Amino acid sequence: MSKITVVGSVAFDSIETPFGKVESVLGGSATHFSAAASFFAPVNLVAVVGNDFPKEHIKFLKSRNIDTEGLEIADGNTFAWKGFYEYDLNTAHTLETKLNVFQDFEPKLPERYTNSEIVFLANIDPELQLSVLDQIDKPKLVVLDTMNFWIENKKDRLLRTLQEVDIALMNDSEARELAKTFSLLDAARMIMSWGPETVIIKKGEHGVLMFTENTHFAAPAFPLEEIKDPTGAGDSFAGGFLGYLAKTSDFSEQNQRKAVVYGSVMASFSVEDFGLNRARHLKQKEIEDRYAEFEEITGF
Amino acid sequence: MSKITVVGSVAFDSIETPFGKVESVLGGSATHFSAAASFFAPVNLVAVVGNDFPKEHIKFLKSRNIDTEGLEIADGNTFAWKGFYEYDLNTAHTLETKLNVFQDFEPKLPERYTNSEIVFLANIDPELQLSVLDQIDKPKLVVLDTMNFWIENKKDRLLRTLQEVDIALMNDSEARELAKTFSLLDAARMIMSWGPETVIIKKGEHGVLMFTENTHFAAPAFPLEEIKDPTGAGDSFAGGFLGYLAKTSDFSEQNQRKAVVYGSVMASFSVEDFGLNRARHLKQKEIEDRYAEFEEITGF
Fold this sequence. Notes:
The structure is a homodimer of 300-residue chains.
Chain A: E1 4-7, E2 11-17, E3 20-27, H1 29-37, E4 43-50, H2 55-63, E5 66-67, E6 71-74, E7 80-85, E8 92-98, E9 118-121, H3 126-134, E10 141-145, H4 148-153, H5 155-162, E11 167-171, H6 172-179, H7 184-193, E12 198-202, E13 208-211, E14 216-219, H8 233-248, H9 253-270, H10 277-280, H11 284-298
Parallel strand pairs in A: 1-4, 1-9, 2-7, 4-5, 4-6, 9-10, 10-11, 11-12
Antiparallel strand pairs in A: 2-3, 7-8, 12-13, 13-14
Helix pairs in contact in A: 1-8, 3-5, 6-7, 8-9, 9-11
């Protein structure tokens, strides 16, 4: 078992999809990641919330084996995001982003986080991602997620941070934008040339591709009866992926493939309900059953 | 080994993509299908061309073990299509369609085609598809392809023809349009309720999904260095799929999965060059090597 530390956002999300609507529910990249990863291994959470953050949310995180010592409670309000999805559910349309206490976030890691073997740098400012890395003593596996905002506004810093990263994780459109090429194969090679040994490209309903210099792996998405809310799917994927790697402490390409499938399993559960609702009553057996279904779906 | 009969178009294609341009090359759904299937099993071709159709094309088809007795040569010009693709290569934009002799096509099957075990109804008028089926004596496996034009203009006839079909094959956008639902799982179920036991949905660069009442299979597309011309990819898929089923005479769901992968292999070769160029110098060993690569790419 390896220890995971994640840095990212903890937020209030207000979300509307064609299938319903929620107001100010617990969300954020670090939250979705932690909730998914916690089914496999303990997680150290590094993030900031305001003093409006309800105690019941912290209680929930602790109940999921998530260490919240690194969750700073700052004066002010918690980061809040409001957005909606149209029928195709692939693109989040932002209505409002209030950074609030996140604006001045300076991650400071508790002493006991500094020997974490696995670090997940969720989608935040690449400078903050780097400052977290600087506080960890020789991690064995560093995984970075990012998004178009940083690609467009802080590309230099992002490229600097990528030098320290083992696995880069992003959406297909982000990979294309970052590498300035349509071919995902070319994009992955370009990103690898900047540092990461492995590039994982998330394609939403079309599954996931994982590239290394000499190998490549393709996993489909799980075909779902109903998708209510795609928010957090990518972070849930990362949580399942790194959770499984932490549980097994085996970072080989072969084991990373299994981890990609566990990631896809966790993403598939995440979208079945709004916010973290599905994770709240998810059972270990459901995870294993869906993993077996993935084997069944892809075998030939 | 089972015999395959295909009915569809044989055409002159003029194609422009960001990677090049060709004028009046041999194309058409039945041609691409036959060229791919002929690597696995002999094919009976039912189609019509004009008396402008060069003898060298017929010579090429014969050289590939394609029976051309069912290729009618009518007075007039051969069906001609002109179109282009933009950078994403997913959508064909039609500039010109000259039906020519195809306008009055009435498929008449040579006697020796009438005991074919496998029938592929390529993307043509569903009434013609049905008239071909009527001429074949109890086929074991009937596969139908279609497109938005027939869904929009002859839906009643298409639904009638689907009643006689074992496997319906179409693009994701066509399946959504036909079933009037966004979910591909729901669309497949709807289409199955109209007759076919199996629905195969082609998703271009995102691979293929195959649904039956109780099973489902997902295959990725092969990640290619370069894609020059997507024309005929879907028919090449069908050719590899049915060619393999004909070669093995095993129509079980398990063997259909292998056939889907052979279909994906043939589609991946097809798009590497314009028209039928890649098929002209394709080697059996290249097919088997790429099949093995698919196993490598999808295993976990």
